[in-house]
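Record 1 of the preview.
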Amino acid sequence: MSAGSGYPVGVDESTNRPLPGETAREAVRATLDLVSIAEGVLHVMFPGSVMYRSGEDPVSLMLEPAPGADDLRRLKDKLFELVARPEWRSKHAMAREVNDRHGTRLEVMTPVSPSEYQGGARIVGPFADMQAAESWGGDNAVSTLSFDTFYTGQVWLVDLFDLPAQQPHGIS
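->
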C-alpha cells in the first residue's frame, strides 16, 4: 500500500476490495460448482460477518469474525444436508471437516475427473474400483502431495492432499 493513495490500510489497490483482518478465518473451501451455494449458506447463517473469497478452484471462503465451534457444527450439518440431496449425490459431492496447520475448516466439493486433473490438492474421481483409484493416486502424488482413497458407497475417489512442510534433514 502506498502512502497517500487515499485508501485506508487493509485495501487491495488492484481490486479495491478490503483485505481480511486478523480475526478472519477460512470457514469453507468449495469447488466452483458448489461455491455459490456455500456463499448463500454463509450469508444466511452469519449475516453479521464479512465474507472474503480467494482462489480459483477450489475457492476459499473466509469470514470475519470467524465462526465459533458451535456455529461451525451447525454449518457442517447444513453442508452435509446439501451434499445428501440427490442432485449432488449423483455428482459424488462430499462435505467434510479438515484440521490442518491452517486450522479447522469445512470443505464441500465435487471430484474433478482424472482426465481434467491439473495438479495440486484435489478430490479426483470417480474410479470403478479401489485398484484403479490406488494406481491413479500413486501415479499422480508428487513430492509435495500424498493421497488416500475412499469409497463413497457408489464409487472410489482419490483425495490428493498437501504434505506438511518439513524441516530439511540429512547431511548438511
